[in-house]
Write a structure and sequence with these properties.
Length: 693
């Protein structure tokens, strides 16, 4: 959610002002539904001597943005003129003053900015070195991009594909944390008066400023002097005019943090189209009003509003519980209060995040992501996927109807996308693995139980973000027993190819497994795969077997692991519930069966979790419960969570060639449950993150 937009001065040209506004709006939509990510957009900014149309600093990368007032058919290349043909008119697209083309202009600006970004200490030299550039056309454009695929730092797009292109900017050296953003605001001397409040989540600044200066004394705020009356929203005050809701009740003194919080809630109401009023109570520094039924105060502010009809919408949007009482909805918001409220007195200064904590955060797998906007639009608006997590039918999907598949598409597809995207994105960030894959001309992927294909689209998106040379040579072989799911997957796959300009190839086969076998591959000439993926399917097979197919994780791997290429990786992932007929949960079964298989098959080794890679072959714990939580945001849901258990397995020789160093640290396989083999180590790393140190 946190987006901060700065503009030190307005642009001279109308088209620049328009493009700035459009990009801000797109960024606002992008970051509103992504609470764990941070982004700073600075428009019309002089960085040293370089005049930039914009610069974007996000968690995973930094990009200089050039605005171009063109559209139509555009040809872009390193050498020669860039041409636009629009409404019968042919024009040369200039790259600033002189005879530069936009490529040269972008290169000059990028080279000039890099040393400044590192000398100011805003970025590390490595991060600055990976600075990207985006050339964004103001009007709709079809771009023939002839720039060599080896030039990875430059992205050329129009406003329609701006967010998708921005999402693809990711640098292995960049994993900016909250404190990095604090430092960047400080080192780039971003003045609060330059903030474009309309687009910014200004409420985060109070934390940033508090942590940079740490001088704010808590302000005494007298609230509810008349002994905690519930807020009274008179009928007439729930106005049907179109203005923003009225802010805090007048008799409440406010400090800066409340002002910024009020502005944040105004933005939320306006984003949701709510015209009613709200009141905000500072429950961190004051007693909780007695009319509040929930005794669990989770956050510093209590928000109350008479807009009961928007309860669900607010809940979905904010992803936090919203309560209802006597015609009022209310919820806790703002900075979380970790301790019991009773122990938080009015004069307690908020705790600073200390350095070891943030080091730990860097050692954790990134587990949240967001659907690319093309995919979000396609599954909800065009295919009419529906979000409905209460749907009870989704333990068995083999016989799902077309309508069930649309609910699966709108609800569970994004979760499978997120699991797979985050897991593979981490794998591809390992230099030794990356260079190995980079040497390949083509990739072959096998998906067993592909369903509507969320797992495969997640994998493909991670591939595109991390590599450039597979654009023409990705082959996906997908097997599933449900014809409706396969046909939805085909549509999503086709749209993926069009939207990302990737001409990958899909081969599908409808097969119902009754015991695993490689017969399903017999129609295809390919017999070895760089990725073998099975997400949330083996558990269904176990459940449907009522005790006869309990060994399915073992059977699956025994059957398909030999189909891996020398450097192939197998991804087995499942939900963490349990089948009705067993007292064991799926993670118990997965751990026991795959450890057993690894003891028997000395050609293969687990890559992730790291502790199972190291200790799995000697681990005899038949009740090891593992779980990792991923979250995905999209237009229907913010931070939708999914708990899974998974393993990555590869050939032993290959795993050893990757040169991964085993961190001698404690590893938690499930919410603080430490793998007993690592219990005696000091420090802690995330066993799900490759490259942890
Ligand atoms: C929960 S969905 C997972 C789909 C996709 N892999 C994902 O992660 O979103 C499970 C899929 O397994 C398929 N499936 C279940 N049992 C099967 C069987 N015996 N043979 C073939 N497919 C099966 C279902 O049709 C369904 O599409």
């Amino acid at each position: 959610m946190p987006l901060l937009v700065y503009r030190p001065r307005n642009y001279d040209q109308t088209h620049e002002r328009e493009e700035f506004r459009n990009l801000c709006q797109l960024l606002k939509e992008r970051y509103y539904s992504s609470p764990d990510e941070f982004c700073i957009f600075i428009g019309n900014f002089n960085l040293g001597d370089v005049e930039l149309d914009g610069i974007i600093i996000k968690d995973e990368g930094v990009a200089v943005v050039e605005f171009k007032d063109y559209g139509g058919r555009i040809t872009a290349a390193e050498n020669g003129d860039w041409i636009s043909e629009e409404s019968g008119q042919r024009s040369v697209i200039k790259g600033g003053s002189g005879k530069k083309n936009p490529y040269t202009q972008a290169k000059i600006n990028r080279n000039a900015c890099r040393p400044i970004l590192s000398e100011t200490g805003a970025l590390t030299p490595k991060q600055a070195n990976k600075l990207a550039s985006m050339i964004v056309f103001h009007r709709p454009a079809s771009i023939e991009n002839r720039i060599s695929p080896h030039i990875k730092w430059l992205r050329v797009c129009d406003e329609r594909s701006f967010i998708d292109e921005l999402d693809l900017i990711v640098s292995s050296d960049c994993d900016l944390q909250r404190e990095d953003f604090e430092r960047i605001v400080d080192r780039l001397a971003l003045d609060p008066s330059w903030l474009c409040v309309r687009y910014s989540n200004v409420e985060v600044l109070k934390d940033i400023n508090a942590e940079v200066t740490n001088t704010q004394d808590p302000v005494e705020v007298e609230l509810f002097p008349d002994d905690n009356p519930a807020p009274v929203f008179e009928e007439s005050s729930i106005s049907d005019d179109n203005k923003s809701p009225a802010a805090l009740p007048m008799n409440h003194q406010q400090d800066d943090s409340q002002h910024t919080f009020v502005s944040y809630i105004e933005q939320v109401f306006s984003a949701l189209g709510i015209n009613g009023r709200f009141e905000i109570f500072d429950v961190k520094n004051n007693p909780v009003p007695s009319w509040v039924e929930s005794s669990i105060v989770t956050n510093e502010f209590l928000v109350a509003s008479p807009c009961v009809e928007f309860k669900k919408k607010i809940e979905n949007f904010l992803s936090r519980p919203v309560f209802e009482r006597d015609g009022i909805v209310y919820w806790f918001d703002g900075e979380p209060i970790e301790k019991n409220l009773d122990s938080v007195s009015g004069d307690t200064v908020p705790e600073r995040i200390d350095y070891p904590e943030s080091r730990l955060a860097q050692n954790r797998l990134k587990t949240s992501t967001r659907l690319p906007s093309w995919l979000d639009h396609f599954i909800y608006e065009e295919l009419k996927g529906r979000w409905n997590a209460d749907h009870e039918k989704f333990e068995f999907n083999l016989h799902s109807s077309q309508d069930d598949n649309l609910v699966y598409l709108g609800t569970y597809f994004p979760r499978s996308y997120a699991d797979s995207f985050c897991i593979f994105d981490n794998l591809f960030s390992i230099d030794s693995y990356h260079s190995c894959l980079e040497r390949k001309d083509s990739l072959k992927i096998l998906s067993i139980g592909c369903g509507t294909g969320g797992d495969i689209i997640g994998l493909l998106t991670a591939l595109l973000r991390n590599f450039t040379q597979f654009n023409n040579d990705i082959y996906v072989y997908a097997v599933d027993g449900n014809s409706h799911a396969l046909s939805i997957f085909k549509s999503v796959f086709d749209r993926f190819c069009v939207s990302t300009r990737c001409s990958a190839h899909l081969y599908v086969k409808q097969t119902v497994f009754d015991g695993f076998s490689t017969d399903c591959l017999s129609d295809w000439p390919i017999q070895e795969f760089d990725f073998i993926v099975s997400s949330k399917m083996i558990g269904e097979i176990i459940s449907s077997g009522s005790g006869n197919r309990d060994n399915s994780y073992y059977d699956f791997c025994k059957t398909f692991l030999p189909k891996l290429t020398e450097s192939g990786v197998c991804y087995i992932l499942d939900v963490t519930t349990k089948p009705l007929h067993s007292s064991l949960f799926f993670p118990h079964m997965m751990s026991e069966q795959l450890n057993r298989l690894m003891r028997e098959e000395c050609d293969f080794e687990v890559l992730v979790p790291i502790c199972c890679s190291h200790f799995g072959p000697i681990c005899q714990d038949s009740r090891c419960f593992q779980q990792k939580e991923f979250s995905v945001s999209h237009s229907r849901r913010s931070s939708d969570k999914c708990r899974v258990s998974y393993r990555l397995i590869a050939r032993k020789e290959f795993v050893q060639s990757l040169g991964l160093v085993f961190p001698n640290k404690r590893m938690s396989v499930y919410e603080g449950t430490i793998c007993p083999f690592t219990n005696s180590f000091d420090g802690e790393v995330d066993p799900y993150k490759l490259g942890s140190v």
